[in-house]
Amino acid sequence: MATASGINKIVSYKKETTFGTLPSASGAQTIRRVSSSFNLTKETYQSEEIRTDYQLTDFRHGVRAVEGNISGELSAGAYSDFLASSLARNWTAATPSALGSTTIASVTGTYTITRTTGSFLTDGVRVGNGIRLTGFATNNNNKNLLVIALTATVATVVALNGATLTPETVASGGTYTVSGKTTYAPTTGHTDDSYSFESWQSDIGQSEVFVGNKVNTVGIALPATGLTTVDLSFMGQDLKQRSTSQYFTSPTAQGNNGIFAAVNGALIVNGSPVALVTAANININRNMTSEAVVGSNIKPEIYEGRIIVDGDFSTLYQDGTFAGYFDTEAEISLVVALTANSLPNSEFMSFTLPRLKLSTDTKDDGEKGIVSQNSFQALKGNGMNGFEATTIMIQDSTLV
Asked: What φ, ψ does residue 386 adopt, rounded to 5°?
């Protein structure tokens, strides 16, 4: 008799229109994963009755719920639905206006793009966005430029993957785009998304479909060497059905976008590129809760909590900069840009935390390079100095 193998499991999902209601079978998406598990759980109740025969006479099942986890290697577009849901906001695109007369200048390892008409801020550009130019000298076009400082008319950028720009001034014809789309934790208009997931074991003909799943936590891990990973956890309502046939008919196959390695991209701390980081982690916690009700074996809703973002990073110990940030309780910013390969126009994602405070500062020891470890707590930004007024902003260059 055949037994199940993980490589033959297809995990697919579709966003629900109504929480806990299974959507139609078409239009689902297969998930890229390293591992995935969705399981029905139940509360259990054991009798406390004291008996002269010294024995237990009853044990009951109670309220049902779903626990779900997906572990993967981060790539552009692969987990975009869940990242937007974790921040309670849909992805949106900026609408750049014409630049008019524009000057590109080199400034100590960075570049400035100065426009004479229009406003980067009004266009929807923010610090942490990646932009691309067209209509300039050949060397300046179609390269990923990470915005690290911004005013209405001047964008200070870092060219990703070691690319360079050529200083020039054009009278007209220069344009730019903000690659893909952006989402962030909003001030108002929060979304409340839920998903149905199917685990289809094709080798043994077994399907389990779970409904009412909301993103509870997201963990992004950037090692100094190796691939960037993502871990997602879900709180769900119920196992809706078991079957011997696949429910989601012909789900879209997994994508093929390149997987991010932390060695490709850039890390910007308080507006300055840092080349000493040995690892970094960003965590998003939605603090979901649910409540049981009398007369039902499922919980009617999963309630969203605050969007709490924290994490840590480690750096080779060079000076007292990070210790000083910790000692003085300074507010700093963090921008992480990840590229899928070494090309100047690679697919990319960026993560921007406009305002954070370091909560620890420690250093290790040994016959090696000394490493300083800092954990941080992100806070809602004030929307000044070119940043979005949010705790975290994410950009994905592949979204259209």
From this structure: 85, 0
**Mean pLDDT, range 86-96, rounded to an integer:** 97
What is the chain's mean pLDDT, rounded? 96
The Cα–Cα gap between 76 and 339 comes to 9
N-to-C CA span, the chain: 46
- Compute the average pLDDT of residues 16-34: 97
Name the residue among 106, 177, 108 with its Cα closest to residue 141. 177
Residue type, 152: A
Distance CA 383, CA 112 (A): 21
Q: What is the DSSP letter of 389?
A: S
All residues at 6 or more sequence positions from 347 whose CB lies less than 8 Å from its CB, including other chains: 75, 76, 257, 258, 339, 340, 341, 397, 398
Q: What percent of the chain has pLDDT over 70?
A: 100
Q: What is the pTM of this model?
A: 0.95
**Which amino acid belongs to residue 247?**
Y
Q: How many CB atoms lie within 10 A of CB 22?
A: 18
